Amino acid sequence: MIDFNLSESFESMGTSMQVEIFSSIDHIKESDWNQLIHPDDIFNNYHFHRALEAANCIGEERGQIPFYITISEHQELKSACVIYLKSHSYGEYIFDWSWANLYERYGYNYYPKLIAQNPFTPATNRTLLYSDKKHIPYLFEEICKISNLHNCTSKHLLFLEEDELELIPNDYKKRTSFQYHWKNYNYKNFEEFLFKLKSKKAKQIRRERLTDLEIREIKPELLKEYATIFYKLYASTIVKKQSYAYLNLDFFIYIFTNMSDSTRLIGAFDQENLVAASLFFIGRDKLYGRYWGAVEEYKNLHFELCYYQGIELCIRNNIAVFEAGAQGEHKIARGFEPTKTHSAHQIHDHNFQDPIYNFIDEEDKQIKDLFPELKRKLPFKKI
């Protein structure tokens, strides 16, 4: 991994400030970093970034080089952002492959580009960390400097929280995408949730939940023991999908060791043998469903482990929102509501900026037209 540590001091309105850019989160104190994050910003946790680094899931050889930008005032960390210099578009889930193809068609390179996103994670999390909004412009100044230094074609901020949109400079183009999120309307238990559904849909879910396997949560203190077998389950899913494993065993060992309070592993057991499992990350008001796998195909087990167990976790822990990952219109029938997600993009070459921004405008219109139709498919009883 490229190692660097850049520092610059300046004064703003009589206040002494310092900008630092690091190649590794190891150069930043865990306590300083984590005091900037919201309780639901699980994927901004110091240890999540540290796990990606320690397991070599990111870095120059992965085509994804991190820059940790920090703004300090009187030696106290006030704002931060992680941005990646990328040579590809894998693991982003807000897709720009067609933009890259457009560049290629005219004989230009779309890469390198800069991207702010928690890697391989299609989850809404804060991109800009701060204790005071006044420091945000300095973050964008540094992002711009990094972009210029590395001759980037574009800058992208993905899966922004809605309240972050007002902090984004006006020369970024806002883009709307969508996922399916489950929302907790103060349900006391799973049956009360089912009671709110149309009878046919509730019966379907009850049928899907029937299984001879024992479903149970694995205790946090035992997580590390299950790291190897869970990785094998995760890897088996990747193989079945003919996809690419962005994460490795070292990543899961690190997460299960250092973030056990923020993870929930639900297992399906056949006579004490773990045959399938799903991994969730849990915040104060949000639950994130991330990875799963099974040793073989079990009818409806994916729905049970990835959706219904997540709903149960939300109800038990009074969690308001369950984000179960990217895509999947089949989630609607199980009570997951279409929900807009947000990103912001800046294309530097005006020859490409116009067609790409027009594409974003057209995409936004299509989503607006589609949303009423998707909402009509929701399984809830009409009040």
Overview of the structural elements:
It is a single chain. With 383 residues, the chain is an alpha+beta fold. The protein folds into two domains: 5-177 and 340-376, Aminopeptidase (3-Layer(aba) Sandwich), CATH 3.40.630; 185-319, Aminopeptidase. Helix content is 32%, strand content 28%. It is built from ten helices and 14 strands. The protein has helices at 30-34, 46-54, 97-105, 136-149, 190-195, 199-209, 227-240, 249-258, 301-317, 350-376; strands at 5-12, 15-22, 64-73, 76-86, 113-116, 129-130, 154-160, 173-183, 214-218, 263-270, 273-282, 286-294, 321-323, 336-347. Strands 1, 2, 3, 4, 5, 6, 7, 8, 9, 10, 11, 12, 13 and 14 form a 14-stranded mixed beta sheet that branches. Strand 11 (273-282) and strand 12 form a beta hairpin. Helix 2 packs antiparallel against helix 8 and helix 7 (227-240) crosses helix 8. It is globular. The model has no long low-confidence stretch (mean pLDDT 95).
- Estimate the helix proportion, in percent: 25-40%
Count of distinct strands:
14
The tally of domains stands at: 2
Order of helices and strands: EEHHEEHEEHEEHHEHHEEEHEEH
CATH class identity of the largest domain: Alpha Beta
* Largest sheet: number of strands, sense, barrel closure: 14 strands, mixed
Query: Structural class, from secondary structure content?
Result: alpha+beta
Alpha plus pi helix count: 10
Rg, Å, rounded: 22 Å
Low-confidence stretches: none
Shape: globular
Distance between the termini: 57 Å
- Tell me which oligomeric state these chains represent: single chain
The CATH superfamily of the largest domain is identified as Gcn5-related N-acetyltransferase (GNAT)
Give the averaged pLDDT, no decimals. Answer: 95
CATH domain topology of the largest domain: Aminopeptidase
